Amino acid sequence: MPVLLSQFIEACRWVGALLVLAVHSTNMFVNLADIMSAPHAASVYAWWFFVSFELGHQAVVGFFAISGYLVGGAVLAQLRKDKPFLRDYLIHRFARIYIVLAPALLVTVAADGIGRGWLGDSGVYDWPVFKDHYRADLFLGSLANLAAIYCDFFGTNGPLWSLACEFWYYISFPLLLLPFARAYSLRTRAVGFALGLAILVVMSIPSGGWFRFGYLLWGLGALATLARRPLVQSRWIALALYVAAVIPIRLLVRGPNLEAFPYLADLADTLAAVLFLNLVVTLRFGPQQGWALFQPQLHRRLADFSFSLYSVHMPLLILARAFVDQRFGALWARELATPVHWQVMAAVMTAAVVFGFLFSRVTEAHTNSARRALRRAFEAAEERRRRRVPPPLTQEPEREPQKADA
């Protein structure tokens, strides 16, 4: 992958995670209900515009497109080779998800336990959105990546729904395409395709979730890697097209418009994903000079813990909101924003980023080590299996000569 494109993707990853954190933090601590009726500083108007639900949602759309481009694109590349790849691929994907997911669920248990035990009278943990979400079966459902597909999310960690969708994309996509993998036997390809199709059907049965539509966006990302040339040669024009689409989406995809046109959100997300991937392809084939903003290695360092930050930020925000409600009263956070509200939000966001970084040092930073450990475990199991199976006979055993009749 060209360096400029790699750095651009890294920048998109950490900026997207930070935007999601900012959107959720604003919803928790800053009330801008008077944004259209009272004068505000230019910075407040800028925050209101950019740190909005719709642009936060577009960050998630970008995550799905990038994931499809990187992971799905790698699958398409492997299919063109005459070398088995499925085992190493699954090891990489399982390690990537579970080295963060399982500890993130434990963080959720701890944060929610502290909040419900010490700050329960704040009422935050009794909000309808969290009602009956602290059950063990929901913990196991989230651990099995079924959240928002076959069960509710566990505790206060709603954002884990996107990991559940992506996990099953990771598993089903190579299986569905296994018939094109020449390195495998006809039987293996047929069984793999059947299993992939079964996963796709089973996960698509529940209605109201994002699995099916998200798969479309993810698949578009994978298909973008097959482009032989960009549709738009100029990266500036490609960027301008994306921005020109996202700004109207920010302003129009909301409230009455969604009620009048139920499919408006899906159309907007598809358009945004296509134009974002158009920019990615343009950067892939374009010159690697210029755009100095994306050159620093800082983007990679920040992206290296963006997954961790995304996975643990919500329980931390809810814990902070429970503390604030107990300390200042349940109505304080709902008052129109004052400088103190902004300061509290900034402090909470900073704490979440620091915790996300420290969390990543004991989880995400060890992804490659986890992959090596899983690979060694598979190799050891394969060696034990070989030892238990007797070698096939290569020739018939010699017969004893018959004794002559006396």
SSE map:
Elements: H1 3-29, H2 42-50, H3 53-79, H4 86-118, H5 136-143, H6 161-176, H7 186-204, H8 211-224, H9 235-252, H10 255-260, H11 264-285, H12 298-303, H13 306-328, H14 339-362, H15 367-388
Number of helices: 15
Compute the average pLDDT. 92
Secondary-structure-derived class: mainly alpha
Give the N-terminus to C-terminus distance in angstroms: 84 Å
Unreliable segments (pLDDT under 50, ≥5 consecutive)? none
What characteristic shape results from the CA principal axes?
A: globular
Find the count of extended strands (DSSP E, 2+ residues): 0
C-alpha Rg (nearest Å):
26 Å
Largest sheet: none
- Please bin the fraction of helical residues: 55-70%
String of helices and strands: HHHHHHHHHHHHHHH
Strand residue percentage: under 5%
Write up this protein.
- With 406 residues, this protein is mostly helical.
- It contains 15 helices and no strands.
- It has helices spanning 3-29, 42-50, 53-79, 86-118, 136-143, 161-176, 186-204, 211-224, 235-252, 255-260, 264-285, 298-303, 306-328, 339-362, 367-388.
- Helix 3 (53-79) runs parallel beside helix 6 (161-176).
- The longest helix has 33 residues, at 86-118.
- The relative contact order is 0.15.
Please give a quick description of this structure.
The protein is mostly helical. The chain has helices at residues 3-29, 42-50, 53-79, 86-118, 136-143, 161-176, 186-204, 211-224, 235-252, 255-260, 264-285, 298-303, 306-328, 339-362, 367-388.
